[in-house]
Amino acid sequence: MPKRKLMQDIVQDPTRYHRAPFDIVRDRRFSDDERLEILDAWEREIRERDGDEESECLQRVTQARQEVARRRPAAQ
């Protein structure tokens, strides 16, 4: 499957391809920008399902996003 198609599929349903948010952080197929795009989609999915409630899953997505953001300056 071409990477572009894979990205589209993952953004549509992140939990289908990754069990946990940090799996995305460790997935070497993606750049940090792509990881953030996937995590954004995951957060949207959670908020649509749970509203604005701070669930444990939402906290894990936030932590994964912070990890990606923390490493980005070092890579540039």
Give a nutshell description of this structure:
The protein is mostly helical.
Tell me the number of helical segments per DSSP (H or I, 4 or more residues long): 5
* Total beta strands: 0
What distance separates the N and C termini? 29 Å
Strand content: under 5%
Helix content class: over 70%
Order of helices and strands: HHHHH
Radius of gyration: 12 Å
Low-confidence region ranges: none
Secondary-structure content class: mainly alpha
Tally of domains: 1
Q: What profile does the largest beta sheet have?
A: none
Mean pLDDT: 89
Shape: globular
Essential attributes:
5 helices, mainly alpha, 76 residues, single chain
Fold and architecture overview:
The model has no long low-confidence stretch (mean pLDDT 89). The protein contains 5 helices and no strands. The relative contact order is 0.16. The chain has 76 residues and is mainly alpha-helical. It has one domain. The longest helix is centred in the C-terminal third of the chain and has 20 residues.
